[in-house]
Specification:
10 helices; 381 residues; single chain; six-stranded mixed beta sheet; alpha+beta; five-stranded antiparallel beta sheet
């Protein structure tokens, strides 16, 4: 932002006049000129505190939007068997600079000399305001990539998200491969629909959650590690909820009398008091979501990507991503790839919820420390 001010003032017959271009006259205008410049400089004299409210929220919005666009673009690339690339924003440093100048000059001439214009005084004022943010980017590679993208989500953390109020049917569908060996929908080379028992378990667990029949606690045995326990509450439940609970135990091969059930990670349970969650990693979730993206039919006909697999009856779609050649006007997130636009409609609440939830899932999979040293630093002017 540039701020500048300049005026030419002449002394004639003992009175001050602003230059003829302004059409103004009179001594007070010189005073106005000086006061105006002083207000410019003094107004920007302390700019640090005033930038906090603006910059903090502007940078938060920009980073949030860029994360969503990066995630969507990588999901689209995986739909076409392209390599996903993640770049984290490490640091944002914003520096400000304020400069101001005031100049004055004049001359006293001989009015009787040929061509003389009389005494005159020149006043000049100028200012400059600079904002030079520095953004640090860190590529997600090596061990960081493995920890964040390839590490399965902790089963206990998934269950505590249920306790926090997230729908259990949504969580189990997006984050698990199998429950006690009962398999979820698979995509890719081993594409297959979900087992009918999985669909039924997800449906019943949602109804039990709505009735308030699910709870969790952390249990630690002597010398052992913490274990997450699933509790089935039976008080104040309807007869239908009790029947649903008994059917879930039957499908999962649990002890009908079991109330405290341990949550573990694995392909199958080792006892009738255990629920083994075969959880997915962030990479597997992205592969599953990539299969749901709507792509141009000619891309499938030309074998640029594979056909969209059929949805499993009884399981709602996790996300709907549209595609087209025209840029959408009401998108929650959008990205361009291969001359086509891909987007999630801002009126599609369920799809927006999936994108928001992915940030939580990726946070759960980060088990190690991030690289602290910046790999790439760019000054954004």
């Amino acid at each position: 932002m540039m701020r500048s001010l300049a005026r030419n003032v002449r002394l004639k017959q003992g009175r001050w006049h602003v230059a003829a271009m302004t059409g103004l006259s009179g001594g007070p205008y010189l005073i106005v000129t000086v006061i105006l410049f002083a207000s410019i400089v003094s107004g920007c004299g302390s700019i640090g505190p005033g930038t906090v409210g603006r910059d903090r929220f502007d940078y938060v919005s920009a980073i949030s939007d860029s994360w969503k666009q990066q995630l969507l673009l990588n999901i689209i690339k995986m739909r076409y068997a392209d390599n996903p690339v993640f770049m984290d924003v490490g640091q944002v440093i914003s520096g400000y600079e304020l400069e101001g100048t005031l100049t004055a000059g004049g001359a006293i001439g001989n009015k009787s000399a040929p061509g003389a214009v009389g005494d005159f005084l020149n006043l000049g004022a100028g200012g400059r305001y600079l904002d030079r943010p520095t953004v640090t980017y860190t590529p997600l590679t090596g061990a960081d990539f493995v920890k964040t993208m390839l590490t399965p989500f902790p089963p206990g953390a998934i269950m505590f998200l249920v306790e926090a109020g997230w729908p259990v049917d949504f969580l189990l569908q997006i984050s698990t491969q199998a429950i006690n060996g009962i398999r979820n929908r698979m995509v890719g080379v081993d594409a297959r629909p979900a087992d009918p028992e999985f669909v039924e378990i997800v449906r019943l667990m949602k109804r039990i959650q709505t009735e308030g029949g699910i709870g969790f606690k952390v249990h630690r045995e002597k010398g052992g590690e913490e274990a997450t326990m699933l509790l089935f509450h039976t008080r104040h439940l309807t007869q239908q909820a009790l029947k649903d609970m008994a059917e879930v135990k039957r499908l999962l091969r649990l002890n009908p009398e079991a109330k405290d059930i341990q949550i573990t990670y694995g392909a199958d349970a080792q006892s009738d008091h255990e629920i083994a969650l075969h959880t997915r990693s962030g990479y597997q979730v992205m592969v599953a979501l990539a299969s749901l993206i709507s792509v141009p039919p000619q891309h499938i006909a030309e074998h640029r990507t594979v056909a969209t697999p059929e949805e499993t009856p009884g399981l709602p779609a996790l996300v709907t991503v549209h595609s087209g050649t025209e840029r959408p006007t009401d998108a929650f997130v959008l990205a361009k790839y291969r001359d086509h636009w891909y987007w999630v409609d801002d009126r599609d609440f369920l799809s927006k919820r999936t994108f928001t939830f992915l940030t939580i899932l990726f946070t759960l999979s980060e088990t190690g420390q991030k690289i602290q040293q910046p790999i790439l630093t760019i000054r954004a002017n």
